[in-house]
Write a structure and sequence with these properties.
Number of helices: 15
Shape: globular
Radius of gyration: 27 Å
Number of strands: 18
Length: 576
């Protein structure tokens, strides 16, 4: 099939010669991959999948792009071409292969060739993840910066952006498809351009558009040692298989006519639930058209049309990539389970309480981990996954501001996770891991209390929670690397309880030393009058604040939190 502009005209340029576009996503090298040996390569979709066992990771521009590529392309292609496992035994068989079998590779080649290969082109009569001929009611187009959250466009003007809205952002076809997928998952909310043919557009626009589906989640992506393992770790076990009426966006014309949903290849849209896993992963939350042009650097995407798309009425419980907040007594009209978002400024290991919450809280409200991590727990419990497997977790999210119309912050982290800590019944390792996290949190709060008491003793007031530099943040930053090494080491601990006890003692020594350094710095900075301090009235009582009293209270708290270090000190051992 020849490349055409999505309106149907051939891609022409000066001199009447057709522009040479590499728009075939099946073979064009639009994905950058780091191989097991460390070399970087550009790969097309088919080569990425068939060679997934030799790829360590995808090398993408931003962390939020990984779930977009997995969900919008890689996972649904694999699910639809090969089917999903219907039992843990079948999942384990696939995982144990370490790579796609020759038969599976043939099915993938057929799927991306004769069956649907022509639907994976960026500029054709049926452009991938776009609406052919999409036009704004105003007739205007926008700069391609509209697809890139870090570039200035409209209300979204990042601080220190290298571009203004008047500048061109020229994207190669490889860059354009990545940001196209990213926009479907993470685009900002609020007003969008009205499209010709959209009967719901009023005054040239649509209002009330939510963010892309992932913008409402704290995304959690389990990963393995290779891309193949990562694909399997993100594959759900569905005992009944895929619903026959559940189709990815590129095969939407195969849905039953009775579904009543709008085609993602048309300007029209609807607010609706996802019909299944394939629909959920490839949900088209925007109607987009990439407009190519010839530049001095060659063919580039410089202009786009971005309009409102389908609106997901609720995040379904079969959502793969989020943890949940469970509410025992939800308000009227609200679900008992809602997606849990990540908190800015907190490392992923500080949220292990939610990642390792394997069951719905019995006594009220609380977190509940993702479907995929619960599945890994079940696989390990049934001996289908080794406790020493090098499981990793990547977390990411976006923070929006001004009615979710602008991107304010991006959150991303990676974390080694001991598989044994995901056991629901034999929870000794999970208890130990969560104890280490809780100790760090309690010591951090003790340091903040020390800072507040010293400020009062010096004649001042405690810092508001959202202002100033807090010693707790410095402490958590100081011990961050040690916690990650601890978690990586615990992946191979087996059933060695004695080794675990030594690891916990070493962690307490690390915390104690870091806390003492921060406390000493705080005490060294207070003025001499803090020794005498001052007295304040609280609830009718006089409370004295002095630097010596504050230091004593801090060390008492430290001893109560880090009991193993205190026991070592009590028998004459070395203390920090």
């Amino acid at each position: 099939m020849r490349s055409v502009i999505s309106g149907g005209e051939p891609l022409a340029c000066r001199g009447g010669k057709a522009m040479e576009w590499e728009d075939d996503l099946v073979r064009q090298r639009w994905l950058s991959a780091a191989e097991l040996g460390g070399e970087g390569r550009g790969l097309g979709l088919l080569e990425t999948l068939t060679g997934a066992h030799g790829i360590r990771r995808l090398d993408l521009p931003v962390p939020t792009m990984l779930p977009a590529v997995l969900r919008q392309v890689l996972l649904p292609v694999v699910f639809d071409a090969l089917g999903v496992p219907r039992s843990r035994k079948e999942w384990a068989r696939r995982f144990g292969q370490g790579s796609f079998s020759d038969e599976e590779k043939e099915k993938l080649a057929d799927y991306l060739g004769p069956r649907y290969g022509d639907r994976f082109r960026l500029f054709s009569e049926r452009p991938f993840a776009q609406v052919a001929g999409l036009s704004a009611l105003s007739g205007e187009t926008k700069t391609s910066a509209l697809l890139v959250p870090s570039a200035a466009s409209g209300n979204n003007v990042p601080l220190f952006s290298a571009l203004s809205e008047a500048d061109h952002l020229d994207l190669t076809s490889a860059q354009a498809v990545l940001w196209l997928l990213h926009a479907h998952c993470w685009d900002t909310a609020a007003i969008k351009t009205g499209a010709v043919g959209d009967e719901q557009a009023k005054n040239g626009k649509t209002t009330g558009n939510p963010t892309g589906p992932l913008g409402q989640l704290g995304v959690i992506v389990p990963n393995g040692r290779t891309l193949y393992e990562t694909l399997l770790l993100n594959t759900p076990i569905l005992h009944d298989g895929l619903d026959p009426g559940d189709r990815p966006q590129w095969a939407w014309d195969e849905r039953p006519a009775s579904s009543g949903s709008k085609s993602p290849a048309s300007p029209e849209w609807s607010a609706r639930p996802a019909t299944g896993v394939l629909d959920l992963l490839t949900f088209q939350s925007r109607r987009i058209r990439l407009i190519p042009a010839e530049t001095e650097q060659g063919p580039r995407v410089r202009q786009v049309v971005v309009c409102g798309g389908d609106r997901l009425t609720a995040t379904p419980e079969q959502e793969l990539h989020t943890a949940w907040n469970h509410t025992a007594k939800p308000k009227a009209g609200q679900p008992a389970r809602r997606p849990r978002r990540h908190t800015s400024g907190r490392a992923a290991w500080q949220g292990l309480g939610a990642l390792l919450a394997l069951s719905i809280p019995e006594d009220g409200d609380g977190p509940y981990t993702s479907l995929l991590l619960r599945q890994i727990s079940d696989l390990h419990a049934d001996k289908y996954m080794s406790a020493g497997f090098a499981l990793g977790v990547e977390t990411c999210g976006l923070e929006y501001g001004n009615q979710s119309a602008v991107v304010e912050n991006a959150i991303a982290d990676t974390l080694p996770l001991p598989v044994a800590s995901l056991l629901a019944d034999d929870d000794w390792l999970r208890v130990a891991v969560l104890e280490c996290v809780e100790q760090a949190d309690r010591v951090a709060r003790a340091l903040d209390s020390l800072q507040s008491d010293l400020r009062r003793a010096s004649g001042g007031d405690p810092l508001p929670r959202d202002k100033g530099e807090r010693p707790s943040l410095l402490l958590l930053h100081a011990v961050d690397g040690k916690m990650r090494r601890l978690l990586a080491g615990l992946r191979t601990i087996g059933d060695d309880y004695e080794l675990l006890e030594r690891a916990q003692e070493a962690w307490e020594i690390t915390l104690h030393r870091a806390a003492r350094r921060q406390a000493d710095a705080l005490l060294a900075a207070v003025p001499p009058r803090a020794v005498i301090g001052r007295t304040e009235k609280a609830n009718g009582k006089d409370i004295a604040f002095r630097s010596g009293k504050a230091a004593g209270a801090f060390h008492t708290r430290l001893g109560e939190i880090l009991t193993r270090v205190s026991e070592v000190a009590a028998v004459g051992g070395e203390k920090a």
